[in-house]
């Protein structure tokens, strides 16, 4: 495969992609890095190019940093947990023989196509709203006091919304994985005397592990940057402020570009730590 | 023919603005050389877009809809075009309500033309008040409001004595609470820019607010902003509602189920002098980065003129004209007849004093805000703390402590 | 060798799956129904399901208030444009990674993915300043490029996993048959990977369609897509559920329908080589 | 232990009857091989025995008790699949232990049995590898190991060697035969490979379209095929089947003569032909003979070498006592 | 046209030298087969000739001109891959036309050549199908068709039949041989199949670890293997290789005797042993003989049947003139 000719061709072929991504990564990132050491507050007309690590110190020591970090991890973790357990269940269910499998699949996949803004608006107003939301009617129907999701269980509510959007993704990937399981393996385990639960635990679940890591990787990439759902529902109130959202507040609400840039750099570093960690797992899985 | 100049106008998606969009034809008929492009966005998104635009040197918009908070700051930064001259001849600057115009003027330059102005007041259900055996004074006290709210509350019939903003945000609950705190003698900063959330007046304000809302407020009040409360009131689920004066036309309008039994009163006080009412105007400003300032001035003149008011009146009735900007409107008998809330609105607006908002002297201007660039960021976060307290997730003391801490942090970061 | 299954079991699975399916779909269904109600019916207590006066009024109102066709056009151009541009850059890169792997191919791939973790808002100012400097604010081309860059890592990765499944022998056969690099990619690789390319395209159209941060911040009038359109419909003075629903349906319907029609392709593409 | 009877068993998939009523007895300790063309129902029959498919009608009994409705895990049989069906995420040790773990055996017993099986199958060095790191033959052995530890009353094999390359196939074939010699457990073995069937079986079952064409020992089938189908199916290269006048001379519709039962001469013989391709293997030579006027192409096998070139004229003479005769219905005439 | 020379060619992958310096001449019109154990470098060698890999050092010339650095498309060779490597999205016609399209031939010429190739390969009825709708043998033929139309100076085949089933393999083998007879183009053919090598080759090249062990005609290799490796590699079942005193008796370190060159008796003979597994194929019987004291297991091949049972005592006698002798270095002693 690899002749000198094809190798040099490969270098030329890969160059545009690497180049644009490098530019995309480096130019704004360098500017952000530059701003992060500056006192840059356009609203005050302040621009002082070098103030050392003040912004970093301020960002990292601010009372909101740790809580937002924790919120981020908790949110991403819970959504992953829900989508993966839900996805595995749905995948197994959809794999069963049934009538109208195609239609069910279409129903399940639909939330994936919905714009985050739209789904946040719909959930917030038409489901979670304590006066006019459907859930409240449900509570009232059973004679209960309506529950105010967005203030009483804000994180949970956002998790529900996002999980709803990403569950189809997990389901689809896992469904394909389930379908790729060699049926002879299941039959072999059946001959070996394994009951249904053991078959799931010892055969199906390990078989899905690769697909699960891929789901985790892709979703984490997208979940770390959740924004619209928080912006629309709670605006960061009730402890739903993630790191991304905190940076947003610094940049756009407080108009402190220097501080926000420092926050952005911190977020990049943290995201990459998570990324490297995930890539290790996935990279290993990609090899096998 | 001549080249057509296209103006890009950023507006907030509220009713008056959308109505203006509908009347565009009137302007373009008169100015065939100008075309209008509307960018209509939800308030938060709008602010995010126009702020980014103006602070990065802008140029995307020729006319921006901004509030009383932004105008002085942006004017100070020399980002806005002064409207002292170049406006249409019949655009009568002297006719603007002094309180409103004052808030839009920096160093003698008027930097934005008010599209509509508002203060806040008490809207209440006359029928429920009667049922409770009480009578609303024209200028109630907070104590009265709290008692009346308790008396009107009838949870079985989904009637809450008091509706007020609880949703986090500097333009949501913090507008209400800051205005309210003024009447309790609280302030954001002392004259040396020290945050004041650790003082007794703030504790009193928050305790009172939480107490009243818990007794008589709606379930889920911590998520209720202007829109949510409006719906509640229109559905007949509120005994009283303290909010912007512009709401008056909606609660007495066609969408309201209780339009016939709405009364109005001044925002409450606490016997210390200031009332808990604010002052706000959605205004049209022209950024310096616009290359079409002349055309933009023509448009702003049209949109904030008396004749525009008449145009709306002719099309939609007097009750729907944008209120709170011109003295002449409140001298117009037709309007006063159509708008039972007119007098109370005018009185509310006139009684707000942005330069001396509270009992003690302050280094800033603004009634329900502090006119410094950092305010929005700080108040959003403080608002989250208070909203969290209203939701019952923390105590008033905790919320105040957190508010104090983060305000100190931010104000230090800002270099005060 | 699926084993025969009893009808009772099949009915049970059917019932269970449909229950779950409808639960997942319900929010969309409810939005759809609400969009045809009057505002009063929309918040009626108890909720009204099917038997109400269906009305198109909300759609007409929404239509009157904003330029839906223009936003739709922009969404289509931006989503398709960024995807096509991305594919054009990604195909050669994926070819190189899949068929001429070097020692650091995997590192390059993972590095590309990690650029996707850049929090958007962190680079907001730099990007806006750059766009201003280049004079491309509020242009479709800016959004096409930005969204392409955001999604490029995903495109490359997906294509890479697809290409890897194509036996290298076929490309060698083409070489033996006298094909140059261009012919090899154009006549052999691309058509063979067409299902994979199609699903990559679909997924990226969806991602680009739904991107709501940059598309709002970098546009005003000319390039504003449906995400900006929907941003003008949340809660103006009162909770207009019916109008909100109508606007929501307008914003998601095109992509939803496209997604449904291309469901099979998409499912294949979504697997990212997760399944061998 | 290990006696299996099928009594009027049928199997349909939907409307498609794959197995018409079928009777078959497999005796204890026997090595039974199912052969037949692709799609004839070999796998289906094996899976019916295993319990992986339900019978449509009829009864299956194992060791005298009715097993028709027993689930696979309760039948006491072990199966080795064509794809090995190893659990890819478990080590060899875990794979072999799996059935015992399911049965709840204690660790010590498990270990002892694993070690014994590994020793028997030459797997001791690989116990801690995953299946992905093993060669085809080793994987096959693991699959057998997993079957052995259960001490089943019979082993079922579905084309267990067809994924291996030729050399390995020979080796594994011997190993399975030796295993059978040692364990003396009943084995039911599906294959489409001539050589496997002939060399391994005590009893071959030839199937066609779900119907048993003949049951018998390999040499029985070789020497006295019951019909044309079996005659053509067993033996490689294929038996030459001749119809027409030449067959009529022997009072038959068809006569059959195996390639190894033809003698060759350059000068004289019964039938005359022209050499087509001659394949010299050193030990043997296969000659494809054309233009005999009897059938399109006749195959001859000669031990050792012969100097036959493309186009040469050649004479063939059948060994008379090795000729097979079939009637119009294709049945053997004895 | 079709003369290929390799001159001191080496190939390393990283530090791993897969082909040590190697010389080889392939004459015009020859059918050359590369055989050798898996991983010995057969494919690598073929791909070096094709230009799909760069040589690490040395020169390759085709028809007298240096082709060492030419890209594959410029060498005028055609290759048929093990996996057929058909373009699945093109019809058979387009597949066959592809190389001509690349060469920019006009439509009419293309059509004529396609028709000719299709006729020659019996593909006329399938020209408008896609490869997915063809059987294995048909696909193989399309791959060959695609190679033919280029009128290459040589064909390269890399295990072209190994994905086919046994019956088809035989058929395709014959077709390729006939093709060679017709076209008389040089063919270089890689296989690991004994029978293919023996039957098809004009010249067999036996490789081990990248080194050429012997080059010669099939029967040369069968009768006079140059060393122990070739002796063991060519012929099936394998030659029995005996060391020790018995070999010393013949003044050799090792003696070799093929299974078919042993005569068997129940009563007397040179060597005595015990019957292990006996494989009865009907036409032949392979007996595995243990406990001869000469080597672990000796294989004997008998034409026809013999009544040998597991455990019987048996006597073997080698045909003296068929014995091979090797010295300590493993080289043939003549
Ligand atoms: N699950 C099934 N549903 C429908 N038909 C089936 C099923 N399994 C097998 N068949 C059909 O039953 C017949 C016999 O199949 P079976 O797999 O037993 O053949 P086989 O003899 O094992 O063939 P091969 O040698 O190719 O493995 C075939 O015609 C096949 O199409
Ligand atoms: N691209 C490569 N990179 C590194 N090593 C390789 C590469 N290709 C082949 N090899 C090594 O070169 C040696 C020869 O490989 P080659 O494929 O030529 O063997 P082969 O004789 O064709 O074997 P087989 O009969 O299994 O096809 C092997 O040891 C193999 O591992
Ligand atoms: Mg089968
Ligand atoms: Mg090879």
From TrEMBL, chain A:
Short name of any one Pfam family annotated for the protein: BPD_transp_1
Residue span, ABC transmembrane type-1 domain: 69-278
Protein origin, superkingdom: Bacteria
A GO BP entry: transmembrane transport
Bilayer-crossing regions: 12-37, 73-94, 106-123, 155-178, 211-237, 257-279
Family annotation (InterPro entries): MetI-like (IPR000515), MetI-like_sf (IPR035906)
Membrane topology: Multi-pass membrane protein
Cellular component annotations (GO), alphabetically ordered: plasma membrane
Signal peptide span: none
UniProt subcellular location: Cell membrane
Keywords, sorted A to Z: Cell membrane, Membrane, Transmembrane, Transmembrane helix, Transport
Protein family per UniProt: Belongs to the binding-protein-dependent transport system permease family.
Protein's recorded name: Sorbitol ABC transporter membrane protein /mannitol ABC transporter membrane protein
Lineage, uppermost ranks: Bacteria, Pseudomonadati, Pseudomonadota, Alphaproteobacteria, Rhodobacterales
Automatic annotation (TrEMBL), chain C:
A Pfam family of this chain: BPD_transp_1
Cell compartments where the protein resides: Cell membrane
PROSITE patterns in alphabetical order: ABC_TM1
Topology in the lipid bilayer: Multi-pass membrane protein
Residue ranges constituting the ABC transmembrane type-1 domain according to the UniProt record: 72-262
Transmembrane segments annotated in the record for this chain: 12-33, 76-96, 108-129, 141-163, 184-206, 212-233, 240-261
An example Gene Ontology CC term for this record: plasma membrane
GO biological process, one term: transmembrane transport
Keyword GTP-binding annotated: no
InterPro entries in the record: BP-dep_ABC_trans_perm (IPR050901), MetI-like (IPR000515), MetI-like_sf (IPR035906)
Keywords of the record: Cell membrane, Membrane, Transmembrane, Transmembrane helix, Transport
Family classification: Belongs to the binding-protein-dependent transport system permease family.
Name of the protein in question: Sorbitol ABC transporter membrane protein /mannitol ABC transporter membrane protein
Source species of the chain: Sulfitobacter guttiformis
Automatic annotation (TrEMBL), chains D, E:
Organism: Sulfitobacter guttiformis
InterPro entries found in the cross-reference section: AAA+_ATPase, ABC_transporter-like_ATP-bd, ABC_transporter-like_CS, ABC_transpr_MalK-like, ABC_transpr_MalK/UgpC-like, Mo/tungstate-bd_C_term_dom, NA-bd_OB-fold, P-loop_NTPase
Family from the record: Belongs to the ABC transporter superfamily.
The keyword Membrane is assigned to this record: no
GO molecular function, one term: ATP hydrolysis activity
Domain ABC transporter: residue ranges: 4-234
SMART domains from the UniProt entry: AAA
Record keywords: ATP-binding, Nucleotide-binding, Transport
DNA-binding as UniProt keyword: no
Name of the featured protein: Sorbitol ABC transporter ATP-binding protein /mannitol ABC transporter ATP-binding protein
PANTHER family: MALTODEXTRIN IMPORT ATP-BINDING PROTEIN MSMX, MALTOSE_MALTODEXTRIN IMPORT ATP-BINDING PROTEIN MALK
Pfam families (UniProt xref): ABC_tran, TOBE
């Amino acid at each position: 495969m690899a002749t000198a000719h094809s190798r040099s061709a490969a270098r030329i072929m890969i160059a545009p992609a690497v180049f644009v991504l490098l530019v995309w990564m480096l130019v704004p990132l360098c500017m952000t890095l530059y701003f992060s050491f500056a006192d840059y507050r356009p609203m005050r007309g302040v621009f002082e190019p070098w103030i050392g690590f003040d912004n970093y110190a301020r960002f990292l020591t601010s009372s909101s940093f740790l809580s937002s970090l924790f919120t981020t991890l908790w949110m991403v973790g819970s959504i992953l947990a829900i989508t993966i357990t839900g996805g595995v269940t749905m995948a197994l269910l959809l794999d069963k023989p049934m009538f109208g499998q195609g239609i069910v699949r279409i129903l399940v996949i639909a939330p994936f196509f919905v714009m985050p803004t739209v789904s946040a608006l719909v959930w917030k107003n038409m489901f979670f709203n304590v006066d006019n939301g459907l859930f409240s009617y449900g509570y009232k129907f059973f004679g209960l006091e309506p529950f105010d999701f967005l203030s009483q269980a804000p994180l949970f509510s956002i998790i529900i919304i996002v999980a709803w959007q990403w569950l189809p993704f997990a389901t689809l990937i896992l469904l394909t994985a389930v379908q790729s399981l060699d049926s002879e393996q299941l039959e072999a385990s059946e001959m070996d005397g394994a009951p249904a639960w053991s078959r799931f635990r010892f055969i199906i679940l390990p078989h899905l592990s690769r697909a699960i890591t891929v789901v985790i990787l892709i979703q984490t990439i997208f979940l770390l940057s959740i924004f619209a759902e928080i912006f629309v529902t709670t605006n960061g109130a009730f402890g739903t402020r993630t790191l991304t959202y905190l940076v947003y507040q610094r940049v756009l609400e407080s108009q402190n570009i220097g501080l926000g840039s420092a926050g952005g750099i911190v977020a990049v570093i943290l995201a990459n730590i998570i990324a490297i960690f995930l890539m290790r797992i996935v990279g290993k899985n990609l090899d096998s | 023919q001549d080249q057509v100049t296209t103006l890009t106008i950023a507006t907030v998606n509220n009713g008056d603005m959308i109505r203006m969009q509908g009347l565009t034809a009137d302007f373009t008929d008169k100015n065939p050389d100008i075309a209008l492009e509307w960018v209509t966005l939800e308030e938060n998104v709008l602010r995010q877009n126009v702020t980014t635009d103006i602070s990065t040197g802008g140029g995307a918009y020729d006319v921006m809809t901004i509030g009383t908070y932004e105008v002085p700051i942006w004017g100070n930064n020399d980002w806005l075009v002064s409207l002292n001259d170049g406006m249409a001849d019949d655009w009568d600057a002297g006719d603007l309500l002094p309180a409103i115009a004052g808030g839009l003027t920096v160093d003698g330059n008027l930097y934005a033309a008010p599209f509509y102005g508002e203060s806040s007041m008490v809207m209440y259900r006359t029928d429920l008040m009667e049922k409770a055996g009480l009578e609303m004074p024209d200028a109630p006290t907070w104590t009265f409001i709290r008692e009346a709210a308790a008396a009107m509350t009838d949870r079985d019939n989904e009637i809450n004595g008091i509706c007020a903003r609880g949703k986090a945000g500097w333009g949501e609950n913090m507008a209400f609470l800051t205005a309210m705190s003024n009447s309790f003698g609280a302030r954001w900063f002392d004259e040396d820019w020290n945050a004041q959330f650790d003082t007794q007046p703030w504790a009193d304000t928050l305790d009172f607010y939480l107490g009243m809302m818990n007794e008589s407020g709606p379930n889920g009040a911590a998520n209720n902003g202007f829109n949510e409360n409006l719906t509640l009131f229109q559905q007949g689920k509120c005994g009283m509602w303290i909010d912007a004066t512009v709401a008056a036309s909606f609660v007495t309008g066609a969408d309201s189920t209780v339009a016939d039994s709405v009364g109005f009163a001044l925002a409450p006080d606490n016997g210390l002098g200031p009332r808990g009412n604010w002052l706000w105007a959605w205004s049209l400003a022209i950024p310096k980065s616009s290359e079409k300032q002349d055309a933009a001035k023509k448009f702003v003149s049209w949109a904030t003129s008396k004749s525009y008011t008449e145009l709306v009146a002719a099309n939609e009735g007097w009750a729907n004209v944008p209120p709170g900007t011109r003295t002449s409107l409140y001298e117009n008998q037709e309007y006063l007849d159509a708008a039972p809330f007119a007098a109370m609105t005018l009185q509310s607006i006139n009684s707000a004093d942005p330069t001396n908002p509270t009992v003690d002297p302050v280094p800033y201007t603004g009634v329900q805000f502090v006119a410094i660039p950092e305010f929005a960021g700080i108040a959003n976060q403080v608002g989250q703390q208070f909203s969290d307290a209203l939701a019952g997730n923390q105590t008033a003391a905790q919320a105040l402590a957190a508010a104090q801490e983060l305000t100190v942090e931010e104000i230090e970061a800002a270099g005060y | 060798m699926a084993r025969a299954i009893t009808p009772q079991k099949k009915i049970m699975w059917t019932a269970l799956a449909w229950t779950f399916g409808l639960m997942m779909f319900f929010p969309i269904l409810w939005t759809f129904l609400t969009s045809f109600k009057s505002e009063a019916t929309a918040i009626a207590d108890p909720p009204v399901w099917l038997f109400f006066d269906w009305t198109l009024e909300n759609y007409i109102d929404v239509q009157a208030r904003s330029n839906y066709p223009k936003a739709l056009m922009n969404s289509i151009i931006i989503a398709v444009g960024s995807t096509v541009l991305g594919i054009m850059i990604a195909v050669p890169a994926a070819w190189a990674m899949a068929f001429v792997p070097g020692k650091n191919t995997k590192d390059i791939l993972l590095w590309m993915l990690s650029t996707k973790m850049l929090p958007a808002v962190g680079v907001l100012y730099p990007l806006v300043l750059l766009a201003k400097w280049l004079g491309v604010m509020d242009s479709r081309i800016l959004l096409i490029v930005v969204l392409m860059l955001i999604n490029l890592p995903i495109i490359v990765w997906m294509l890479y996993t697809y290409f890897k499944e194509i036996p290298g022998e076929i490309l060698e056969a083409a070489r033996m048959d006298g094909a140059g690099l261009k012919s090899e990619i154009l006549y052999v690789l691309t058509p063979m990977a067409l299902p994979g390319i199609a699903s990559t395209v679909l997924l990226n159209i969806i991602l680009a369609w739904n991107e709501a941060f940059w598309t709002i911040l970098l546009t005003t009038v000319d390039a504003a897509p449906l995400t900006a359109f929907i941003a003008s419909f949340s809660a103006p003075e009162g909770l207009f559920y019916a109008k909100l629903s109508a606007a929501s349906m307008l914003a998601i319907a095109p992509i939803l329908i496209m997604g449904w029609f291309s469901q099979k392709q998409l499912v294949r593409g979504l697997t990212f080589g997760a399944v061998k | 232990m290990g006696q299996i009877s099928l009594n009027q068993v049928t199997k349909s998939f939907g409307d498609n009857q794959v197995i018409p009523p079928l009777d078959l007895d497999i005796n204890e300790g026997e090595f039974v091989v199912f052969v037949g063309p692709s799609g004839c129902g070999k796998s289906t029959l094996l899976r019916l025995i295993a319990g992986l498919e339900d019978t449509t009608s009829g009864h299956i009994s194992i060791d005298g008790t009715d097993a028709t409705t027993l689930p696979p895990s309760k039948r006491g049989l072990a199966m080795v699949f064509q794809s090995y069906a190893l659990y890819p995420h478990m080590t060899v040790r875990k794979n072999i232990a799996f059935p015992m773990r399911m049965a709840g055996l204690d660790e010590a017993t498990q270990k002892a049995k694993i070690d014994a099986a590994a020793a028997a199958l030459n797997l001791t060095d690989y116990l801690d590898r995953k299946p992905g790191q093993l060669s085809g033959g080793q994987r096959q052995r693991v699959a057998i190991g997993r079957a052995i530890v259960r001490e089943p009353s019979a082993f079922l094999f579905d084309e267990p060697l067809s994924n291996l390359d030729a050399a390995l196939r020979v080796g594994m074939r011997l190993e399975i035969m030796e295993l059978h010699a040692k364990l003396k457990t009943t084995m039911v073995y599906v294959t489409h490979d001539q050589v496997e069937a002939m060399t391994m079986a005590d009893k071959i079952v030839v199937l066609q379209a779900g119907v048993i064409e003949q049951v018998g020992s390999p040499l029985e089938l070789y020497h006295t095929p019951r019909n044309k189908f079996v005659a053509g199916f067993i033996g490689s290269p294929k038996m030459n089947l001749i119809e027409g006048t030449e067959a009529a001379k022997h009072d038959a519709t068809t006569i059959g003569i195996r390639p190894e039962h033809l003698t060759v001469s350059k000068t004289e013989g019964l039938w005359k032909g022209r050499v087509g391709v001659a394949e010299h293997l050193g030990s043997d030579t296969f000659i494809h003979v054309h233009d005999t006027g009897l059938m399109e192409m006749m195959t001859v096998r000669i031990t050792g070498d012969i100097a036959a070139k493309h186009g040469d004229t050649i004479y063939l003479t059948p060994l008379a006592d090795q000729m097979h005769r079939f009637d119009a219905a294709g049945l053997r005439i004895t």
